Structure formats: structure tokens, C-alpha cells
Amino acid sequence: MAIKVGIYGAAGYTGIELAQLLAAHPEAEICFLTSESSAGKTLQELWPLAPAFPLSPSIDAPLEAADCIFLCLPHTQSAPRAAQALAQGIRVIDLSADLRIDDPAEYARWYKVAHPAPELLPVPYGLPELGRDLLVDASVIATPGCYATATLLGLAPLVREGLIAPHTPIIVDAKSGVTGAGRTPKVNTLFAEVQGDFSPYNIGRSHRHIAEIEQVLEADGLAPGGLIFSPHLLPTDRGILATIYVQTSEPEAAQAALREAYADESLVEVLPPGQLATLRHVVRTPKAVLSMTAVNGILIVVSVLDNLLKGAASQAVQNFNLMWGLPETMGLIPTQVPQETL
Amino acid sequence: MAIKVGIYGAAGYTGIELAQLLAAHPEAEICFLTSESSAGKTLQELWPLAPAFPLSPSIDAPLEAADCIFLCLPHTQSAPRAAQALAQGIRVIDLSADLRIDDPAEYARWYKVAHPAPELLPVPYGLPELGRDLLVDASVIATPGCYATATLLGLAPLVREGLIAPHTPIIVDAKSGVTGAGRTPKVNTLFAEVQGDFSPYNIGRSHRHIAEIEQVLEADGLAPGGLIFSPHLLPTDRGILATIYVQTSEPEAAQAALREAYADESLVEVLPPGQLATLRHVVRTPKAVLSMTAVNGILIVVSVLDNLLKGAASQAVQNFNLMWGLPETMGLIPTQVPQETL
Amino acid sequence: MAIKVGIYGAAGYTGIELAQLLAAHPEAEICFLTSESSAGKTLQELWPLAPAFPLSPSIDAPLEAADCIFLCLPHTQSAPRAAQALAQGIRVIDLSADLRIDDPAEYARWYKVAHPAPELLPVPYGLPELGRDLLVDASVIATPGCYATATLLGLAPLVREGLIAPHTPIIVDAKSGVTGAGRTPKVNTLFAEVQGDFSPYNIGRSHRHIAEIEQVLEADGLAPGGLIFSPHLLPTDRGILATIYVQTSEPEAAQAALREAYADESLVEVLPPGQLATLRHVVRTPKAVLSMTAVNGILIVVSVLDNLLKGAASQAVQNFNLMWGLPETMGLIPTQVPQETL
Amino acid sequence: MAIKVGIYGAAGYTGIELAQLLAAHPEAEICFLTSESSAGKTLQELWPLAPAFPLSPSIDAPLEAADCIFLCLPHTQSAPRAAQALAQGIRVIDLSADLRIDDPAEYARWYKVAHPAPELLPVPYGLPELGRDLLVDASVIATPGCYATATLLGLAPLVREGLIAPHTPIIVDAKSGVTGAGRTPKVNTLFAEVQGDFSPYNIGRSHRHIAEIEQVLEADGLAPGGLIFSPHLLPTDRGILATIYVQTSEPEAAQAALREAYADESLVEVLPPGQLATLRHVVRTPKAVLSMTAVNGILIVVSVLDNLLKGAASQAVQNFNLMWGLPETMGLIPTQVPQETL
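^ Those are the sequences you sent over. The predicted structure of the assembly is below.
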């Protein structure tokens, strides 16, 4: 019997992607999709390849009909909806920032607003390859941000093994496709602004994803405050590439640590020496790919993923699968079942 | 002594382009730029290569300080401002649709709104290569639309010479870059919507530029109603390419008519046989380029121009030059004056 | 037991796409992939998402191990290979132009070279939605060109029903993504040439796909020589959009004919009135989508498909499935088989 | 009397750009353009906006008719041609790598080939904003590489003032548009490979521009070997953006040093605090733009330029002007000479 799912905020890029994944998921059945701005239309009217499922305003969504909801809402709107669902025994996969930061004060510091539902915190952080114990059978999971996933996959194994030289900066030079900025129309994401341009923004220590990245790394033993994070906007629709520079006295051990961390993972791949990760490796796939280049006491890790999939929707499906005791990659990797047709 | 000019609506793509042209124009001096949404900023803050001239709300613009204003406003907003300026003896170059249609009823039919200033009509139509007599010393000029310019340059000489077979359809399959849709944020002009897509819109007989195209061609003798106009949105920022199909029993005469029509023009070029016009010929230039291919009683005219320049801002400057008795291409074609520096 | 397949010319864009489809096909098993220029590498080294299957020079390919070969070779190279395979009882899906034209003289006229294996002609033309009888159990199938598929899907039902006004031109204004020009490096398909440009080529009656389009339409009753075909190169990687203009005295009947022709097809969709087909409907899918706009005695059919899929590789898989008695869409439309995992 | 100039290798992207600049330069007169692959055509046939000047094979070029030649040839081909010209008293602006490295052994180490004309070395390095004394009246100038210019403009003033913390790595994460890879067709610069991708290459310490960058910085006092240089290929045609990370104990002094270094320069601009440099600032201009962000003992300098202009052709024109005693920006910045027309 299918698990009934609803998506709040289905008309954004992540919601559209998630709706397509869930529509094709063998064990999920969509029972509602919400959108305030496009209510009354079907999702397919917004995006031809999406399911022809009607969008309703959230006030009309039959929350109680769902076993599990996915929240693709702006921060501050997401946590209250999560609280409402959890109070009714409905499980929650949150894709906003609301439930990622354990400490409400830290949330307030980065998001410049009081946390809307501090009683829910802390919530398991849904980056399965860095720890899936808390995700199995969880009632609520906070799905990481796209930049955070790309960065943490490259750094966490190194931090855990103590392989980054103390008191040295960690530099993450990150580049993201435009869908990372959302589907709400703004001048700076218009085609004629982005084509032919490439631009840094919020560089240094001002991008909000630093909060969740450092929370994870500090739990793994990193000293606070050493992360430099420089995002840039790429003239392409999808994909994140983070070029990560760490100083290490043990470059061989560092590379081995990354290789071992993901040796048994089907959705994270470490390329062999001499190859470099590119967006082409991951766009439109649920995978992250890493490559490593060691030189002069610096390890350069290139980490790539599709911001809408491993950086959002497909990672949410991994979390959904873990939450419900399903195989983690169900609905993400085609299983080639020979058809009984001959 | 410089001619003092103001631009209403300077923060759109056409306004930005026009401000750059006027800032470099030897005889013009900008005295104000208006923008409601970006008032308080300089134009350079919106577009790094534009002049660092402040934007003011139109209510604060010193209209009376100007000798001539350029209107890059939405239709219905433009004509009242034109009327106000003309009443004060200030000349007007309008880039909106408001003053292009001679008959207010026709305007109302296409634009679904009563004409805001019918007493101004008719106004000289500023496509100099099709007739510049009325433009010299004019007090007000209506600058044509981008699709209209591309289409009329290809068709008018044929219609004038009676070279299109009667009772046959004229098919204009047009493709435009995204800046043609303006700088106001909308979902359908976001980068992630446009990249990788190509889409027709308003095809058949529903695009508003049909009104001004047919007005010109009917004055030149075309029977009404035969134009099929199919615009498409291209995944590029600038440029229009119109592929025009007409039936003719005199393909040689038709080609000769086009060639002769522009033989003495410096901003419209007809390519020699065997060459085809492409966006590359015209993007970021004030020129239109035409090519011709005759086959089976059909003449295929490809007409290209930069929608922001010959389709808007540089054509407005041509009109400005004619209006003020200046050389028509002043400020548009670099004059190579040897510097006295050796 | 799987059908063993080999691909000649696997390192081009069509070959890469086809290899991905066949690697995931439930009843196919790749036994070789050939490439002269990339022999010794795996296909994945050329394209990260392609299977890690080695490429061999064609001389080393174990032809006799295959049950069926796919030919993604240039014209003139394909037919001799087809003849060799057929002589050994190996079936052939040809994606080149070699086997599409029934009459070798016509082939010679369009391709400026003698037909390399006229004894193979005629060969069933593999556009299943226009006729699949000859494809079932065929030993060899000629898969149509990408432009031809888009054009024929829009025109053939109209021609069959006699709904196009006699002695009127049929105008096909077609636009293709760059992969249609192949993966062999040429200046005109470099990124820096294509971005920002849009260009017609071979317009009128000179593009070679006219031969196969007219062959099909003339068999359906069209008078010869009336097709005007104008291809343009789009600044995008994949997708074809053909805007087709036909004159008809029965626009309602024409729309009904198209609608009925594809009513039972799962891979060709006719959009409801008011919607227009765009590349977004089809890119990365095996489907073609049509829309219709009737105005002034003209029917405008917009026909879209992915040039590498319905225009090449997925259509080849449809043909493969028909040839081998498999469900026609096997390997193309995900069948959601619930996994036995709960 | 005009200075007669010839360009060897005029059919590449740099050559095309340079020919356009020189055709419009008030004191230069093109006397030949060479291309082996396109000889017999005009440059305009390759690029519609370029001058309609014929291309000849280099063997037919009237070298002796030139006062000055520009070499846009591959390395190893350039130096011999320079030697030939200099022997005849003809001055040389080299845009290849051949004359940039003072030490032939170092050249051989990076370029894996013996230097073709070591007797010419050393040659003045033509980055005027870092030192123009040796360029004035020079007979030969080596124009820097595009990555080198962007990197050196950001780093040299800091090194000169001793403001980078000793024994700390300097990390340059650089991103370049595709024209940086040249106009010779290769698979990896095809449109369909680049669109939608973003890819690192030669990261760490393997890119050849490191040689000239370190040569300059070591002359300014930098300890050897600390530069990490990671280039990436951007899906756009033009522009380089280098995000440069240096550790400094004096971030205020560092920012002041950069600001002062370029305070009097018309072609290098340092943005005010709070603004970030983007490609939009520089593409299709002869300028470089820098921005600075200080955080946690790290100074992040973003340096942008157009790789074909300040990174190649317009910098070559600066050098030409200095060499011939002309105003350095002649032909690069429009001088608004009021026309005597009213």
C-alpha cells in the first residue's frame, strides 16, 4: 500500500523536480501539491514534463490525508507547517533551512529572524552518506542545502580523520547554476542578465549555508570559524561545483579517507587519480562525484552534484526512503527488471 | 551647444542601451533618466557599462530642462507624457506603441484599451530607410517596434513595387532574443526557463506588431489581412531574425527591388547572393542585414537586426538625428578622426 | 535470452545516446561499440553518463557475435556495413541516410555520390507512427532523419486525407539544436560561434532531408516539388522545432486528421487547442509533440522532438523493438514495477 | 603617416579581435593578415563584423612592408617569426608564450620543447599597469597571457609591498570563457559539450601560465613555488574571473596597496567596498576590474577581464601604442570629438 505524500511549495524548481520523482516512485502516491501563486493550474501547465496533478493553495491541501509531507517552502514558513503535521502524526521531510540548525540562536544570527518553531529542534540532518542512523524511522528530517551537501561531502571525512592542518583556512570556491536561486522572478536571474555573465556573491563568511556546514564539521571536530566560502553564479541552469582547498600534511591519507568514506556508497563516487569532476558527471542524476588533486601540501577536492537532485529533491527521496524503511535509492536508480513480455 | 535630452523609463533594456548611446553622442547631453523601481540608484548600479547617471522618479524629472525626451515607457503611459512635453515645446521620440498606429480605433482593437491621447495622431513613423521626409525637423516621432522593423525592411520594397503575388499569404516566421520581452522579472524569461528551450508564442495573427506592419504595407498598396506572423523566443539575449516567405512571379525583380531600396543606405545591408543573414551580422550593431533566396516562385528574405538597437535604441537615435538636423548616423558609426597627438 | 547488439559509430552524439538506451534496455545486451577516432577508450571516458564499455575500431568488432547492429555511420559508410551484416543473417537498424531513399538515382542526386549498395533498396522506413506493418520482423530498417521525422509527423496525416490545398506551397521553417550537426569538431559548431548566434542554412530546396520527406509524402499523394524547407541552427544542444505552414480549405478537418492520426500513440502527442509545442515538451524524452493553430486558411503545425531521441536513437529503439517482436516502447518509457522489497 | 601593421594568425579569436581594433586605430594601417587554413578568404567571411581584408598564407605576407607585426601564432611558431622580423628592423608585438619567459630552460620545462629562439630573451613583458618603462620605444614586447594578466593585476601590488603572509599558499581559482581555448575545432569546445557543463582542468600547479605569473611575482619578491592555480572552463564565450585568496596580517594595507596601484590607471578599476567584480563589468571592454573582500585574515581579490581584449588584443594595442610613442589607450577608449557638422 502506497505511502501518501504531499508537497508544500510544489511550483518552485525543487518542488517540480520532487513531484516528478515522487510520481515515479514505486511506493509513493501524491495526494496533494500546493502552490499559492499557481493554485488552480496543474503542475504540468508550469512545466511540461511534470505530472498533470492540480496545485491547490496550502489552505486547501488535505494535510490529514498524507502519511508524509515534503516542505519546499521559504524559511520561516516551513517550520510551522512541520509542527502542524508532526502534531497530527504525519511525518515530515523539510527542504528549507528551518530545521537544519540545532541552535535557535544560531539560526537567528544567520537568518536575521527568530526561529519559528524552536521546540522542534534538533532534527536529524539528512545527508545519508555522512550518517544515516538517525534517519531510519525518523519522524522528521532536515534535508541539507545544496552548497552544504557539496561542501560537506568533500570535507567531513577529512575532518573526522583529523587530516586538515590545524589553524589553516579551508577555502571553498563554489559555483552554482541559476536554479539554485529559485523560480520567483527577479532581475538578477533573468536570462539576459545571466547569459554571458559569471558573478561572485556573498563571498567570505556571509552565505547562510556556512551555518549548517560548520555545525556538522564542528561536531566532527573542526575548530570554529575557519571556513571561507565563496559562491558564484554560473550561466547554466543546474549543477554545483565546489573547488575545495585544504592544507594537509598527509595528502595520501586524506585521499584514502575520502575514498574509503564512500567506497560502499552508490550515490557518491570518488573519481580515480587523474580525472576531474565536472558538472557533466552529475547533472540530471542523483549522484555526487568527487575528484582529488594533491599538490604542495594542498589537497584540492572538486565536489559536484545537481543542486536540484542530490542538493535537494533526490536527497529528500533518499531521506524519505530511509524514514520509511525502503531501499535508500528506490525511485532514484532505475532497477532493470526484465519485463515478462516475451 | 548640446541638445539636452531626458529618458523616461531608462532602467529597461532599451533605456539602458539608449542611455549608453546618448552618453556618447557628440551633440546630446543627458539631463535626466527616470525609473520608478530603481529611483535613487545610478544606471551604472543596474548595468556596469551604463553611465553613472542618477535615476529619478518621473515626477522629479526636470522635464522643462530638456530639449527632447525619449519615452521607453509601457504603452498607455507613453502618450500622455508625450502630450505633456509637446505642450511645452519639448520634442519627443517615443519608443512605445502608443504613437505608431494612426487610427485610435485600430489601437484600441489591438491593445484592448482606449488610446490615451488620440489628439496626437497621426505621428511620423520613424523607420528612416522607408521614408525620412516626415522625420526631418519633426516635433514627435514614433519609433517602430523591433519585429516591425525587421519585417518591414524585408517587405516594404516588394509591396511598393507590386512584386508579391496577389491573394497569396505572406508568412513571417520570426525569432527574437529574450531582451525583447523586457527587464521586468517574469517566470518565462528566467534563465532556467529559457536555456535549452525554444518556443513559439502568439503565432498566426495575434501579435500586436501586426497592426503597425500592416498599416505601413497597406499604405504601400498591400491588400489587407494577408500577413501571417509567428514569433518565437530564442535562447539568446539579443537579436531578431525574421524568415519571410512571399510568393512572386518575378523573383529577379523582387531581389533587385530590395537591393535598390537600400543601395545608398549605410545602416541596411543586402548580402550578395549565396550568403545568408545571421544574428552574428548585427548583434551589438545599429545595422539591419537582409539576405534573399529565390526558389520555386517563393522569395525567402531573411532579415536580421539587434532588437535593442536597430529595433529600438539606435533607430531612436537615427530619428533624433533627423529631427535635429544632424547627420543621421551620428553617434552610431564611429568616425575615425585622427588624433592630433603625434 | 538477451538480444546481442553492436553499435557502429558509437562515439557520436547519436551513438552515445543509443548506447545509453541499449545499456538500460531489458532485452538488449551490448556486445561491441565501435569508434575509429576514440578506439581504446571507453565510451564513459568520452561522456561521463555513458556506459563504461570499451570502444574498438570497426575492424576489430566481433560482428558475428551480434544478433543486430545499429549503424551510426556517415552516409556511404553505412550501407556496405549493412550489406555485410545482412549477408551473415545479422539484422540491421541503420541511422544513416543510406537506406532511406528507395531510388538510387534520387540518392545520387541529393548526396552527390553513387549509392554504395543499391541492391539493398528499398528498405522499410522506420517511422512507426506513420506505418509499422513493414517494420515488424524486418531484417533491416532505415531510421528517418531528425528533420524528416519532425516534418512528416506534422504533414503526413494531412496529405493522406487530401487536406492541403493543391498547388500551394508547404513551408517548413525548422530550427535545430547543435547536436544535429554531429560531434566531429568543426568551427561552426564551436561554443563561441553558436552562443549568441542564430543562423539559417541550406534554406529553400537544398537540404538533403527533403528527399526522404517528399518520398514519403508523394507516396501518400502529394504532388511533387512543393516543399520549401528552411533549417536554422539554434543556440541550444538538443531539440528540433518545425513551424509548418500549409494552406487548407478545411482547417477543422485538418486538425481532426492530426488528432486522430495519433490518438492511440504513446510517443506522439497532439496538444489541445490554445497550447503551443516547445522544446521543453520533448527534450530528453522519446516523444514528439504537435500543436495546431488555424488562421485565415492557413494551418500552422508546430512539431517538436529531441533530435537525438525521437529524431534518432529512441526511434531506432522503437524500430528495434518492432523488428524483434518486443513492445514498441520497451526501454523508452519507464515501467513502474513495484519492487519486492517491503 | 600611418604605422603599417601585419597580423600573423589573424583567423583565431584573438586575431579577429585584434584586426578589428587595428582597423579602427587612428594611427595603424593593416598591410597584411595571415592564415594558413583560411587563406584566400577575407576575414569578414569568417566573422561578419571583422574587416573585409584578405587573408594570405604567411609565406605570401609582405613582411617587409610592415613597420610592426603582431604574432597570434602558436608557441614555437611565434619566436622564429619574431626573429626574422627583428632582423629586418621590423618591430614585434608577440601574443604567444614564446617571449614571455626569460629563461629558456624554464620555457622548456613548462612547454616541453626547446625554446625556438633563445637569443631573443629576455623581452619586455607587456603588462603596462605593472611597469611601462621598458615598453616605451621597445622593439619587441611579449604580451602576457589572459590568466596571467588577471592574476598578476590582483597579486603584484600585494607582493611588492610585502603584504602576503610568508609561507602561506596563494590560491587562484580562475574561470575562463571558451574563446580562451582558441578557434581550432576540438571536441571539448563544441557547443554541445560546453553548454550545461562547467569543468576544472590542469588544476594545482600544471597550467603553463604559472611560469610567467611566478616569474613576475618572484622578481617582485615572492618566495618561489607557493602559487596554486586552478583554471575552470565556463559556459560562456568571453571573460576571465579569477578569485584570488591570500593570507595577510594587514588587510587594510593590502586593500590600500591595490587601490593605490591603479589609482591613476584608466584601464584598471578597483571597485569600492561592498561591490564585487563580475564578467559583466568587462566583457567587450579593454578594462580589468578588481574587487576586494577581507575576512578572517584572508583577502579575497576578484579580478576580471575580457580574455580576448585586456587578456590579449587590447593589451597588445596598449603595448603597440607605448612602443610607438602614442597615447596608451588610443584606439581603445572612444574619444568624443565633437563633429563640426552643425
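Residues 9 and 72 of chain B are 5 Å apart (CA to CA). The first strand of chain B starts at residue 3 and ends at 8.

Shout if you want it in another format.
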